[in-house]
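Researcher: I'd like a structural prediction for the single chain below. Treat it as a standalone chain; there are no partners to consider.
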Amino acid sequence: MDTNDNHPVFSRSLYKIKIPENLPSGSTVLTLNATDTDEGSNSEIEYSLRKKGQDHILDLFEIDSKTGAISVKGKVDYEENRAFEIHAEASDKGQPPMSAHCKVLVEVLDLNDNAPEITVTSLLNTVKEDAEVGAAIALVSVLDKDSGNNGAVKAVIASKTPFKLDTNYRNYYSLVVNGPLDRETTDEYNVTIIATDEGAPPLSSTSIISVHVSDVNDNSPRFSDPILNIYVKENSPVGAVIKTLTATDADVDKNGQVSYSFLKSSSDSLPFPTMININSESGDIISLQSFNYEELKTFQFKVQATDSGVPPLSSNVTVNVLILDENDNSPTILAPYSEHGSVNSESIPYSAEAGYFVAKIRAVDADSGYNALLSYHLSEPKGNNLFRIGTSTGEIRTKRRMSDNDLKTHPLVVLVSDNGEPSLSATVSIDVVVVESTAEIQTQFRHVPVKEDRFSDLNLYLLIAIVSVSVIFLLSLITLIAVRCHRTDGTFSRYSAPMITTHPDGSWAYSKATQQYDVCFSSDTLKSDVVVCPAPFPPVDGELISINGGDTFTRTQTLPNKEKVSAHWS
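Model: Treating it as a single chain, here is the predicted structure.
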């Protein structure tokens, strides 16, 4: 009878195998083989793994008790365990059972199953826009748990940004500034870092770093235009906002807070701070007085816009204030018909023909433009058919000859209106007296006993203007006569001597051989215009007659010595 006197024997006492990590559960890694020379149940072998001291082995591996096949039942990870030492046992079924032991060394092979890990340590929450190139913003470390080429990692910045990665030591980098920063253009950058290993196939990971750019006071306030024109109507109410100035600053917070003030200059001739004020916060320009176009038509000042940065930055704008005329002045009748408290009268002969000159009303308006464009009308008597007045000249003339049925005294009321909106007007009364002969014609004034203390400024200016025009006219006339008297015989034959001709209506004419001018005077030369009317003859060579507009004319003549002589009439 066989007795159990032989131990099981493994084919090898030490097994060495290599397995890749991440083998699927149930995969067989090795089959053990043991034999027993006994017979019967004494030779039947059962396989097992030693339980003492290798609990983690039992979690990952198992053995088939009949076949001896060792298989994987857990996750084999190279990064956790690179090798295993498994102790196996083979026992027969004899009484008492006998057993044998063997050792299995399992080497785990690394696979590229781990992507690189990126760790960012920020040094600055924000970076100033004036940061210098090379300033460090963050520390970046890259780690790959794999080994060999599977763990060799390279990190790069994916997008184009003003930053770069500087290598410190192996897989440690510094994120630094690599170009100029401008918060007004870009206030935040998302820096994408990509880390890639050298495995096959390679694995990579991505990390995004947000870099905030903080503001510095590098932008001064800016006005839309360097020169600004403001149009203000005269008589505007005091305290009205005539304009709001706005300057923009591309900076933020205090660097972008703008305040406004007047910029003082030594060349300022007007005390504009007493005329206007400016709100330092809103930029509103407020009038401190009501403007009068007749006194002040325009003035200029400068406004400075300053931010609250450190140091503060500023810029200037030149403001031109243009006062717009309003129709706030009525026409003023000029002397002699404007004399206060007077009743005006003119005399005309009974034999006066149609178109006989009676009087001329002159008026001025302190306004400008259409507001000062005057027109003359006869407002009384209604239905008048004896007199007419020039709408633009103010000349009163007869429409027809006198008849026996006409009155001897004709009270006329002349209305002078401007072209403003609404129109303003003034009136003057004239009594036209019809006399039998021209010898009785004289201008009579019935004065109310009113005495002025001094000569008005308007009359003084008017008198100076009349005297100046008269002197210029006389000097021009004398110069022309003197030049012509000194000409040679040949030249004198071309320009004949002047001739004065008296007309029946009391006017006279200054005549030449090639050109004639009619100069008409009324009975009172102090209050009437000298009207120079060119006759329909062409001017001689070198002579030019210019109509300046209204009732003024200019005569320009080139003398033989190339000298030009000009004379003006109104």
